[in-house]
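Task 17 of the worksheet. Students: predict the tertiary structure of the chain below and write it out as structure tokens. Keep your answer in the requested format; marks are given for formatting as well as content.
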Amino acid sequence: MNLNYTTGIPNAPNNPSSDQPLMQTNTTSIDTWVQQDHIGFNTNNGGYHSTIHAQQQGTWDPVARTGAPASVTGFQEIFSLLYTPNTTGGAQDTQLFTQTGNGGVSQLSGNLAPGANLSDGWVWVGGLLVQWGYEDIDFSAGGSITGSVTFKDRVTGAIPFPKYCYGVWTNLLVTFSSLPSSSGSVNIRQSSLSNTGFHYQFISNSHDYTLGFTWVAIGQ
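Model answer:
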């Protein structure tokens, strides 16, 4: 939006008739400016925000963390990015992010697309990336079973984790119509934990674990 505005008027030495057209242009520009993202004059709730727009700050990509401003102090402006929402198969949508003075990233918006696969997904929260997923594995053989999970490269440069994964938490799934004869666990091999995935070990004497496990991972 480009608004015409002339400063320095009315100017005392000028004939008022000379300044009047410029003053009218200024008044019209102010009225137009107020109505941008606000409810205008002479209207109920005049001055309230209607929508909010923010200027895109350079070419910064808050997901890949590239192109950041050279100097960041305090709380940065809102950045937008055409980004796949928090689930595999979701349609791209404009998501909003912010960056703090020391480089923390927060995702402010996101949506789960109807009909998409909701068994896995991701979201940025307070500078942390949270991912979750489901491994459909039949552990009915029992004993000790090992395997691996690779974080999906859903968005190039962002997932797998850009830097590292802090930890992974797992949860075995069972059907309550047939409770396991003994307890089971899915443990994470610490040396295998990386920004791209992890290795796990299932341990149980029961042959009733047939539904696999869910997992949640947190990192940056």
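Marker's comment: DSSP finds one helix and ten strands in the chain. The mean pLDDT is 79.
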